[in-house]
Amino acid sequence: MKTLKILLLPLVLVCSVYLYAASVSQEAFLASLSLEEQEFLASHPSFTFLSDPAWAPLEYQDAQGKAVGLSKDYLDAVSDLTGIQFIQAPVSSWQEGYEQLLGGKIDLTTSLTPTAERIPLLLFTKPYLTIPLSIIAGQQVGYIGSLIELGDRPVAVVRGYGAQQWIHSQYPSIPLVLVDTVEQGLLAVKTGDAYCMVENLLVANHYIQKLRLFDNLKVVGTTTYINELSIAVQKDYPLLVSILDKALAFIDAGQREQLYRKNLPNMYAHVISQRTLNLMYATIFVVLLVVIFWMYTLVREIKKREVAEGEKKGSEARFRTLFES
Length: 325
Description:
The chain has 325 residues and is of the alpha/beta class. Helix content is 51%, strand content 19%. Strands 1, 5, 6, 7, 8, 9, 10, 11 and 12 form a nine-stranded mixed β-sheet that branches. The chain has a three-stranded antiparallel β-sheet with strand order 2-3-4, covered by helices on one side.
């Protein structure tokens, strides 16, 4: 029993230090709020939130339907500072949840880019992450420098995402293939139902890996569009936006780095296709065969030389004996 207490003591000390640091951090944050903001927090202990079920690794749902991803971790960090309880709104798709958000049935969403269509409808915090939108096409497609080069080729975009609004507004001649998820869009490009897809670089890379489309799809260019991920809030809560902005600014660089490392482990990783791996394996196999053959030939040659040396020494010995006789 004494041994168990000794082993548990460091864990208890670490937890105590963490809880104390978290408490001090929360107290410092609450002290930075105005009296009006503090009163708002006291009268609004909880809010419902929308999280995209299929936009990994930024936000998605686990096997139990629980919201996970980078945006949810940011929301948890905000909750630790403010004391607000964020309650996940049960939705089966982004499109369904977005309609409920615009209808006032959900208080906020964790990750939304301000667009000309959205700004009159919702309030936005300052962005906590910016990611460019890329063009994904088949392996046979060369570099695409601008969307204007696509002409009348069909482009897959997720229904309700910023890419749909931007392309429809600026390139009305481009036919859009509307899909419900990024996975559907990538598969549409693979099957030829769409010439390419415009999507967030991190998200597209994640689903290309998940669907094992290395040999089929690749990033062929970038766009001028950027996802500026912000928390979007109902128009009725301007004080909540102010509080969220202060909470996001309170999250230091070290904590942000931890969140990125947890959720974006392959952010800058280069994807190696299965074809390339097979070529590497074949090359290694051939090199091993050459090395084995070379070693076998070398050993055989050494043995021949040893036999020749032995015969030479024996001949010399016989000659010496004969000479002495």
